[in-house]
């Protein structure tokens, strides 16, 4: 009897082990499938980003295939937008999660982004039977009174490439949101625009004019510099007293404009069109060696550095973005691609690749096989 009992116990133990092994095999297959699914997902995202980057690089390279600055280029740069102030544009995009379960009258915000000295965000809310859509604005304004005149575009993106777009002209004069209380009917949004419970929205902002947002200036370019300048650059109603020789040494565009076969080379005052006077002041400060670049003005300075072909200013913008900037890697990559900052592009690519690899390795926080070995 003892031998028989021992045999039965052995069979039971073998059966338990066999069942454990079968469970282990099933779980390993499930983990493998999930890991493959996750890997494919991240590879797809990475490939989409790489394709977008290559497309942007090709577009920029095409526009930069000019080896010399000729007279027509200088004239084009200096005569466009003569009748209107420069417009600053950017886009916000966000995917709101689990929108169908939004609680009534509770605002949901996207992450804040800084553009042109101002923090921006998209705000969504469920109000009764409608979806509310707002664009939030909060400037870092040194003045008590300020204003931002804007053109706003609100967009909700649907499942089958259908979309709803509404526009509005609005002047922000205090921090807060502006938009549509009843942008879209709630049930219509749920039926046609939710994807896996999530809602993709976009906001395009065009800044027409600002007041009271200028940061303190470090260097003066006013009439107090008259005795050490030989030309006055006029940007709207602001005059900058500067050295022609110094600017020409920094910029091929200024060299052609101030020393080439243009009427401007003979004038004591030269008007520059299509730029903002505050942005131009910061740009000049960088050219004159001041450390004024920050996350709020780096895009403005890079834009002018590219416009006037000043490698020194553009390099300093890149160095700031590489070492000090708190902008997201996506925003840095966008700036690097737009202005062909090779070192910054390489760093952003490396960070994105590292992030993708790390996400592939993190299938689960806990080992799902652990419990199978606890007999």
UniProtKB/TrEMBL annotation:
Transmembrane segments: none annotated. Residues 89-205 form the MATH domain. Keywords: Coiled coil. This is BTB domain-containing protein. It holds the Pfam family BTB. Residues 21-59 form a coiled coil. Residues 229-288 form the BTB domain. SUPFAM superfamilies: POZ domain, TRAF domain-like. It comes from Caenorhabditis nigoni. SMART domains: BTB (SM00225), MATH (SM00061). It comes from the Eukaryota.
């Amino acid at each position: 009897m003892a031998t028989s009992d021992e045999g039965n116990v052995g069979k039971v133990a073998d059966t338990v082990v066999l069942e454990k092994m079968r469970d282990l095999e099933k779980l390993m297959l499930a983990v493998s499938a999930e890991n493959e699914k996750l890997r494919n997902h991240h590879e797809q995202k990475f490939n989409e980003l790489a394709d977008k980057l290559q497309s942007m690089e090709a577009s920029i390279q095409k526009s930069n295939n000019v080896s010399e600055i000729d007279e027509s280029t200088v004239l084009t740069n200096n005569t466009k937008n003569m009748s209107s102030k420069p417009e600053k544009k950017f886009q916000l995009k966000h995917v709101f999660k689990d929108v169908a379960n939004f609680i009534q009258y509770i605002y949901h915000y996207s992450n804040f982004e800084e553009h042109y000295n101002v923090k921006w965000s998209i705000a969504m809310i469920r109000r009764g039977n409608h979806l509310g859509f707002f664009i939030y604005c909060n400037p870092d304004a040194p003045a008590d009174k300020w204003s931002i005149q804007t053109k706003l575009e609100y967009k909700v993106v649907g499942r089958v490439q259908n979309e709803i777009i509404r526009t509005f002209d609005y002047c922000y004069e205090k921090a807060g949101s502006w938009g549509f209380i009843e942008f879209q009917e709630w049930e219509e949004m749920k039926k046609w625009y939710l994807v896996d419970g999530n809602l993709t929205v976009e906001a395009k902002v065009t800044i027409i004019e600002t007041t009271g947002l200028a940061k303190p200036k470090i260097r003066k370019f006013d009439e107090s510099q008259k005795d050490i300048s030989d030309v006055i650059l006029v940007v709207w109603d602001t005059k900058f007293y500067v050295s022609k020789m110094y600017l020409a040494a920094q910029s091929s565009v200024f060299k052609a404009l101030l020393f080439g076969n243009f009427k401007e080379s003979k004038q004591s005052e030269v008007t520059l069109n299509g730029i903002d006077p505050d942005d131009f002041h910061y740009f000049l400060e960088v050219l004159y060696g001041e450390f004024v670049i920050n996350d709020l003005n780096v895009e403005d300075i890079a834009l002018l550095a590219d416009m006037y072909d000043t490698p020194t200013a553009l390099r300093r913008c890149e160095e700031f973005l590489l070492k000090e900037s708190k902008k997201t890697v996506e925003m840095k990559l966008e700036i690097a691609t737009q202005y062909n900052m090779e070192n910054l592009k390489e760093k952003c690519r490396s960070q994105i690749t590292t992030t993708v690899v790390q996400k592939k390795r993190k299938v689960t926080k806990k080992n799902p096989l652990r419990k199978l070995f606890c007999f």
